[in-house]
Protein 1
Amino acid sequence: MSRHSLHVTVNGEAHAVEVDTRRSLLDLLREDLALTGTQKGCDQGACGACTVHVDGRRVLSCLTLAAQAEGREVTTVEGIGTADELHPVQQAFLDCDAFQCGACTAGQVMSAVALLEEDDWSTRDDVRELMSGNLCRCGAYPRIVDAVLSVRATQEA
Amino acid sequence: MHPFTYTRVDDVEAASAAVTTDAVSRAVQGPDDTVFIAGGTTQLDLMRDGVWSPGTLVDVSRLPLADVELDEDTLVVGAAVTMADLARHEAVADLDVLRDSLLLAASPQLRSMATVGGNVLQRTRCRYFRDPEVTQCNKRRPGSGCAAIEGTARTHAVLGVDAGCIAVHASDLAVALVTLDARVRLHGPDGGRTIPVADLHVRADVDPARDNVLAAGELVTHLEIPVPDARTGYLKVRDRASYEFALTSAAVVARVEDGILAHVAVGLGGVGSVPWRATRAEEVLRGQRASLALFEQAAAAELADAFTVPGTDFKPELARRTLVRQLRDVTEVTA
Amino acid sequence: MTTTTNAPAGTATPVLGAGVTRVDGPLKVTGAVPYADDLAPRDALVGVLVGSTIAAGQISLVDASDALAAPGVVAVISHHDAPSVVRPNEASADERAPRPPFQDATVRFHGDHVAMVVAQTREEAVHAATLLHVSYDVSEPVVDLNDPRATREDDDPAGADSTRGDLERGLAEADVVVAADYVTGDNTNNPIGLFAACAEWDGESLHMWATTQWPSNTADCLAEAWGVPREDVRVECPYLGGGFGSGLRPWPYIHAAAIAAKVVGRPVRVVLSRPQMFTDVGHRPETVQHVRLGARRDGTLTAVEHTATIPVAVDDDNPENVVSGTRQGYAVEHLRADVDQVRLHISPPGSMRAPGEAQGNFALETALDELAVELDIDPVRLRLHNDATTNPDQDDLPWSSKALDQCLRRGAELIGWDDRDPAPRSMRDGDQLIGYGVAAVSFFYFQQPCTVRVVVRRDGTAAVHCAAMDIGTGTYTVVTQVAAERLGLGLGDVEVVLGDSSLPPSPPAGGSGLATAISNAVALAVTAVLDDLDLSGAPGRDALSRAVGARDEVAAEATAEPPDPAEMGMSPSGAFGAKFARVRVDADLGLVRVERLVSVIDCGQVLNERTARSQVIGGAVGGIGHALLEHTVTDLHAGPQTGRITNAHMADYLIAVNADVPDLEVEFVGGPDRLNPVGVKGVGEVGLCGVAAAIGNAVFHATGRRVRRLPITPDLLL
Ligand SMILES: Cc1cc2nc3c(=O)[nH]c(=O)nc-3n(C[C@H](O)[C@H](O)[C@H](O)COP(=O)(O)OP(=O)(O)OC[C@H]3O[C@@H](n4cnc5c(N)ncnc54)[C@H](O)[C@@H]3O)c2cc1C
Ligand code: SF4
Ligand code: FES
Ligand code: FES
């Protein structure tokens, strides 16, 4: 009754799992699928550390029930690149030193990847505003903006 | 979080049929209640706070209510349309008040989860309400008192409130909607009805324990938003530059003809227990020659009877200034 | 093992300096970085802490019957049945570590640990926690700093109090005296990573994966608490998701995991919730300060008085030196500095990003601005005029390095200081009032012994081992750089292993003291291992490999001890800095937005320009929050909520978001410090200090209104 079976694709891999209905998508990833790259900073939608893509859109996995992900394609930071083959956004974060402790980084990277797919922005201030759903307590913000813009510049070139 | 059952419905009838109590309208939900969940950004948040513990969640986020259509001069927006999708829709490109009320709210991630139906039904952010350990809260426990009156009340309301409860309705979108004379289409077990958004919420000074007028099984299916022949704008004032609710906000719809305010509608956010339509201000403004002095007078009239506590002392003044600024910017009046 | 004091002046060698990318960067951008909770055994049970709902009193009963009956629950632990553990002392000082939980029935603050529920899953544990029935005998808490009933401690735990010359005489010599009170609100560290601890017992041996900025001390304290040999305790924490001081102490949640694992005989994981991060791991205490400055017409300071009142928890210690910057900041003959602590029923305050100095600097540097206005002297000139070229707080010994004057001059140039109209409320752009402000920082020096082991392997590659933490500041990277340079190796040939109490002991990653300690220890250990190998210079991989010969590896340990200032004839310097802000204030709405923020820093030898710059940028962002946004609010009014934090939530406790932060300009000036061979001074905290005062002073310049309170919110400017 308070358990739920679901099918979900994570980073291209199909999973059939049974979960406590209370389980969030975030805890499904971290606890059941051992994908610990996605972080929990507040569990209440107020920090952005848990940002993942669901069907290509950036969402907060802490305020999504695992059950709500039925039939969806979920992409996490582990799904976009590896240390040997970094995604351009991951490479840009490294090059721009756009992090310190790394706790917000998975969320920032996933947010930035989605932002670069969105087309309703152009300026540095737009990036600031549209990356404001990801808190960084280490204060890497200006360097995160640099990273996003450097990827956009390469895309355009 | 208490254990609960989760189901998903595919059509509107099934959704209405599934919900047999009026919990969606009440300030608290218990194990006997079945309620809707759409984006979940209010529903799960309150469950995680331990304030809500419904027995069953009915997921309405995949109902076929995800379209935006322009029907003559009225935008018809499905309740399951996300804030992000509506903000990006070409039909709102020139409707600044609506677009900005969406884009200045929450964060990109939240906007791509949250539905417009859920947004207008979101609950107060009062942290005394949101912590079940707090014993004094008339909204959660009628008759227990209100901890916010002498406590931390910086984000609380000054209009539509009294000493029983000063909770603010924190939606930005709903402020734009009441200002635009928008309506909600409801579907219930006994059929449908359409009511103004302005009649959807219940003021705290009327009944803090009830947040809206939805009957058991009533589902919001659409928003109907008349597109005005006027200039519009939404100004949101907050400490942080983004990702924060309003301290105060002002929605303005105005058409100036030969210096005269031929059409004007005004809403205020961050100050009301419900999305606040500033009818007193409108009375002062309507048909008058637009001027800064008139705007001051209108704003003062609206806030004249504000109910303040030490924590909200500054709010009427900030709200007045917010409104004057936005009237000025929308009308482009300079003196 | 070699134990040596830092080599004397003159031996500084320039270390790479240039911006190497972080060696741990790929792990962090791919999500592969293992934080403490990620290392916990997957079969561990989950523990959830339950906090008190009163601020003071006694627990009369913890009724666990309903909770125990809930699905998945394995145990409920409270003072009724928890094993006794000893309250340890901090290794750093003769200061009491935080109390281990569940040792008595007393409630000392709202949210104090009452019980822990242990269950199979987090969902089950959280739910069962709501079924616990706790009854209390409530007593009346004292939570307000201004409450006359509060006990005032006049001892001086931080060694903060100081008297120089004769204050009254200094004031009598002054042509102008300014005096005012300043208030800074309570702040919470709020690293993004939730703190976590997992404990596993094997007989009497304890293995923990726990968030900490100081594994050595955490292990010491656990060993003392359980009365087991230090070798039988191991604390691992290779990475943490930010600390900002909150990971410096062995907080109760760490003990709670160990207690629970002992009780249930299985590993137990505890992850704090965000609200618990407000009450469980320290916070920056609020302050009420009084500053009185006397000066002659020409700007010469004749007297400085700076007193502060700050809260401390019942039954805890927190040496928070609010006046350290004042004591050493400026050349003034007559000075009185004094910090009083007031005991309150609040969660224990602790270190947060520049503890003491963050708050004290705001008061002093705002007061100086007020003095500049009173004297009609340029605020930059006033500071330069009173620059202390020797340390007035340490027998006027010459500084081991100081370039504050360069910081001020360069900062003024960068921001265009001389192009502004100095008159208050004179610069405007439409609705926006524009203002400029400055503040200077003299950060204190802190160094503790640090031991490092350097291992050279048969193939000529090397490893560096130390218990120290990289809290995101770049320790892995700079240790790699220093070792690589001195061994003549490529960065890829050096493996750095940190964050494990079983490795050679280190000081905390705090007080801006780790980089100095560890880089010098690495330098010494490299010298020692090269001695053992009969090599010198930076021999390179082939020579190292040949020298190791048939052995598997050759290792040497060395400890860098802080030098004795008197012996060295100089006063050890911390970092110096100047901050310049340009703000826009909406004339009607009172909204303050920072448009430019310039930080010019003297931190000695820059070990890695890239990570050092990130630290200063990060500090500046923290400073913007400190100035304009951050405020942990406690309910003060009498009633059941007294002492409860009313905004323990990331949506209500506002830290700066991306949109609050302009591009931040950072420059480094000065050269290698003379005190240690590597020439480094810590850069961790100087970045935050001074930002609040610079912004506040800019708000004054913009509006003509002086706000003597943090945070500076719109309602204060209406
Ligand atoms: C950190 C944070 C910051 C935020 N900032 C802002 C902000 O600045 N401005 C702002 O306006 N909002 C803000 N929000 C609120 C957010 O916009 C709302 O939570 C969201 O819009 C709710 O939509 P949802 O689809 O997630 O609703 P849900 O959470 O799924 O539902 C909300 C309520 O409505 C009911 N419901 C949902 N859909 C229907 C329906 N079709 N018919 C009947 N009942 C229904 C549910 O039962 C529930 O009671 C913020 C939220 C968070 C967490
Ligand atoms: S303001 Fe309303 S919701 Fe908040 S504590 Fe008072 S009664 Fe409860
Ligand atoms: S953990 Fe999801 S927003 Fe903070
Ligand atoms: S890198 Fe530490 S929180 Fe962003």
Note: Residues B 124, 126, 128-129, 137-139, 146-148, 156, 165-167, 208 surround iron/sulfur cluster (ligand 2) (CB under 6 Å).
Protein 2
Amino acid sequence: MTERAATTSILNNSEFRRILYQLLIAALLIYLGWSIVENTIANMEARDIRTGFGFLNETAGFSIMMSLVPYEPGNTYGRVFIVGLLNTLLVAGVGVVLATIVGFLVGVMRLSQNWVVSHLANIYVEIFRNVPLLLQILFWYTAVLKPLPGPRQVFERNTEIYFGISNRGITGPEFILLENFSFTTWTILLGILFTIGMHRWSKHRQAATGQQFPVVFVGLGLIIGLPILIFLLSGAPIEFTPAKMGRFNLSGGITIIPEFLAVLLALALYTAAFIAEIVRAGIQAINYGQTEASRALGLRNGTTLKMVIIPQAMRIIIPPLTSQYLNLTKNSALAAAIAYPDLVATFAGTALNQNGQALETLAITMTVYLSLSLLTSAFMNWFNSRVKLVER
Amino acid sequence: MNTLPNPESRAQPVIQIQKMNKWFGQFHVLKEIDLEVVTGERIVICGPSGSGKSTLIRCINRLEEHQEGQIVVDGVELTNDLKHIEHVRREVGMVFQHFNLFPHLTVLENCTLAPIWVRKQPKAEAEATAMKYLERVKIPEQAEKYPGQLSGGQQQRVAIARSLCMQPRIMLFDEPTSALDPEMIKEVLDVMIELADTGMTMLVVTHEMGFARTVANRVIFMDDGQIIEQNKPEEFFNNPQSDRTKLFLSQILQH
Ligand SMILES: Nc1ncnc2c1ncn2[C@@H]1O[C@H](COP(=O)(O)OP(=O)(O)OP(=O)(O)O)[C@@H](O)[C@H]1O
Ligand SMILES: [Mg+2]
């Protein structure tokens, strides 16, 4: 150390300053957090509000219009949590799949040489991206699905109904898989296993002899075609119990409620507009020189897409795609606006209003969304690391 | 190098272009092009920027479409027939100014992709061929690296090896050294000179006049979408015929 450096104050040391700032901020945060907790506890004690998670075992007493597991008003708040969580997972899960399909389709359409196709895709993106999501949920629910005619107008009295759409949603038959159906199940499973094996075998054979094998076609035949054949041969072992239209009302069957459809459509179509933009940008970011080099080497367009363009585009697409999946999951909380019984509407809504345990309920609910987000991120990060490029 | 078959004696045209015209929209970019290339010939194409040099050689492997006239490569006429286009692209390799290597594949995978998917070669065979050509361009030790980890000169040599792995009969080069730092130009030119020594038919767009003098059998000068003048290198450089050629040479030979 030189004399000058030794004489300057330690406050001028950049390393020291950085640590000092971090310590100050950490101290501030701890103080804030602690004072909030202390305050809340003091307030709750003053007002005689009970704390703890015991309420999860108490009877809920209200009914829920849609549930993937058996539920009745006599069940506990804990059960309400499960029902709400599953409903959230269902709408978010189906929403992610649907948004991905529509998004990739529209994104590729936007790049089409065909003027009509690319402009249709463009209009789609501009509309769905720029209207607030809450408005879109209300639109599908109040303007499209609810004004549909009621069951009494749609269905004749005393008939069996196999398929129908009314303001009660989509109605279909209940189905029971008979014993013989296991043949079909096994065929599907074997088909999948066989296709995986075939994929490996074909890769090895191509490496060894250069010959290619139409894995996709044969695989589809094995996983879809053959099971259909077996299904028919084993006597179509599914028993359908149709819904019944009585004198006044529908009963039986399976109904997909309009609340679910409205939230699903809104979430999927809204997110798809963003995904379409991500896909378009990802493909456009690939230099045209890549296509030209592939062509000059004699690669066909399909091979170019599969081996050159898509692997590179995916690397660009995946990180923003992840954040769209996270957005969709979090946005599903808006379902509460039309009373779709998701986690927020049931557990953090009706249940909370009854039991009043806001701190615990909100902590649990927030933890759920946080965990869902972290899990999605972790999965997508893992996936991304598999397709990443080695940079210079 | 002079053990090569004399092109004149073995007049077997592998590229025949007759009265070819091409437009980009309204813009007449190539005008009445007539050109015959025989097997083993090494042609250098030069001319001012925008004169249509790139477009001309890109028509030969159908990266660009011509509108009038005829282009026959390796006995196959280039039309909209995809089978014809595929045949020609298998026989014609191309090296680009900006290399256009596939950044997500290793050097070796860059070289084996087309042989595996187009020539349907077994992987082991494709890899053996690839290593042979990587040795010829003097970078076998980089086979497992990715393009982004290589220098420009190394990348361009990989691009040459990648084309050669398809074992083409004709190689097209579009300004292969003009995106390179000066110290890397020589390593690429050396590889091209060695390639010429093997008897490869080559069409090279370049402003490297030293390369033209030593390697080319014929130098073509283009301006304004036309072939203005073509000659053997000595004649071309020492005794240019048209004023435009003289002007161009005086500009380019100044430095
Ligand atoms: N895809 C295209 N669409 C429209 N015009 C084009 C296109 N490609 C090239 N041109 C035009 O055609 C002319 C010839 O282009 P080309 O690239 O063949 O020239 P070049 O002789 O290779 O020039 P350079 O030495 O700059 O590479 C130029 O005026 C260029 O602007
Ligand atoms: Mg050019």
Note: Residues 29-240 of chain B form a domain with the Rossmann fold fold (CATH 3.40.50.300).
